[in-house]
Amino acid sequence: METPEEVISKLLDGTVAELDITPTMRDTAIARYTAVGTYLAQATEATDKDCTIFVQGSFRLGTVVRPQDEDGAGDYDIDLVNRYLYDKDAVTKDDLKATEGTLLQDYLEYAVDATPELAPTELTQGRRAWTLHYPDMHLDILPAIPDPDVTPNGILLGDRHEHRWQHSNPIGYGRWFRRRSTELLAKIAESERRNDVHSVPEFYIRTTLQRIVQVIKAHAALFFADDPENRPSSILLTTLAALAYQGDTDLFTATVHAITHMDKHIKKINGRWWVENPVHPRENFADKWNDYPQREISFHQWLASITDMLRDTARMSSPGLDKVALRLSEGWGTYAVKRAVAGLGAEMRGLREASNLTMRTSGLLVTGTAGARGVRDHTFHGDH
Amino acid sequence: MANLAQHAISIDRTVQTARCTIRKGVLRARLTLQPTPVSRVYTLNIKYRVGGWPAVTVVDPVLEVLPDDPLLPHVYKGNVLCLHLPNEWTPDQLLGHTIVPWTAEWLMYYELWLATDANWLGGGHSRPNTPRTDRRRPGKSAT
């Protein structure tokens, strides 16, 4: 690490990596929802309305951030769509939701006996989705039907608080998102080559753009911990970050750039706040700001807060790693930042043990094996 | 075995700010080290005489401790930094190539220890109640 910005990048990366979904949990989630999908597909096959389950939201994009509190990180929330092949006029939102609930209840009862290792423990109902509960995660399964105006991937979904069908297009959005980052496209292509497969989803990959989204969401989650009503939606933050992203691969620099340029992508059209859904121009992710003006005010207060925090931290003059970590904890939480610090320590120790650590004439420890100033292996010792 | 002048040169060459003096058989060095780009800049003293162990102490800033424990990690009495096991350094190894970079590491792990509420991430272990004067002189084979 040669600059303060690189140190902060490393700590931010470690912090959100702690809140990210691990490969093991990712594969567990996939196994669980695949089991649900297989059962439901078989159950509905005979009816001609057969359904398909696919992931959406932050799991799909590779931008998962677990909630956290003082004790550590909480359970994972995985968002899924269950798309039934109904025509819009052939079913009501309430019937669709009721059908879904019945099928999922059947699945739960079946799984508890037949596949206990994959079985959920409980089924509950939310505003739009049904939730299957597992020991360490929730699967939120949204019933949906195809949107005839947006083929092939557009969907329509119901919401208890809304009269009309709501439009969405998670598959299209995922495709748009990946195109915002050449790094992401390149890593996907490389993974497809290496594994000799036709397509690798984003959620197997992590790049700077995804990390920026995680850094921003994690900060917002803490900032609005006592004010959840005003918290900006995940899709709004993700879209603004992706629009503002310019391709930097240093996380600190890229995050500062993104938050500094977010405002450019927030429009006011005929006096109304507008952030267009890039894959559905008539959808406005800032719509709620017009109904609840406090939310726009809170968003800009949050944006100023995260901007100040990152700038202040980079400007601290030789404060000590501990003071930098303390400052970052104010924004990202003590638990996750401490884990990032531990990761940094382990990495530095690994460099020394691999004879890949050198000291510069200022005392700066960097990677390298430059002759005499290479740091030889040794064991700390002492009375305490 | 290296002489004091050779040790002094090795420190001078390794650290930009080092100032060494040799008087009455004692090498004294004052230097500053900043182990990471956000670390404090530490001022250190090294004191070494032939036949003894090199002793590194932090002059500035005063090293903070954690709220629940008044003791610093990996130090001897007098807050002399403990940087190695007895058999890991012998007087033929130049101070500038061993003790000095190990000190930079100690300072970095010290800051990480503060940041993680007493997690020493640099590896190593403690031997309680071992006064330095009781230990073997350097250069002898270790048990």
Describe the model.
The complex is a heterodimer of chains A (384) and B (143). Chain A has 384 residues and is an alpha+beta fold. In chain A, 49% of the residues lie in helices and 16% in strands. Chain A has 13 helices and 15 strands. Chain A has helices spanning 4-19, 23-45, 57-61, 93-114, 170-179, 182-195, 208-223, 234-244, 251-261, 287-291, 293-315, 321-332, 334-353, and strands at 51-55, 68-69, 72-73, 76-84, 122-125, 130-133, 137-146, 155-157, 166-168, 267-269, 272-274, 276-277, 280-284, 357-359, 365-367. In chain A, strands 1, 4, 5, 6, 7, 8 and 9 form a 7-stranded mixed sheet that branches. In chain A, strands 2-3 form a two-stranded antiparallel ribbon. In chain A, helix 7 packs across helix 8 (234-244), helix 7 (208-223) crosses helix 9 (251-261) and helix 12 (321-332) packs antiparallel against helix 13. Chain A is globular. The model of chain A has no long low-confidence stretch (mean pLDDT 92). With 143 residues, chain B is an alpha+beta fold. Helix content of chain B is 20%, strand content 22%. Chain B has 2 helices and 6 strands; from the N terminus they run αββββββα. Chain B has helices spanning 4-14, 99-115; strands at residues 19-23, 26-33, 42-49, 55-60, 75-76, 80-81. In chain B, the strands form 2 sheets. In chain B, strands 1-2-3-4 form a 4-stranded antiparallel sheet. In chain B, strand 1 (19-23) and strand 2 (26-33) form a beta hairpin. The radius of gyration of chain B is 15 Å and the shape is globular. Residues 127-135 of chain B have low confidence and may be disordered.
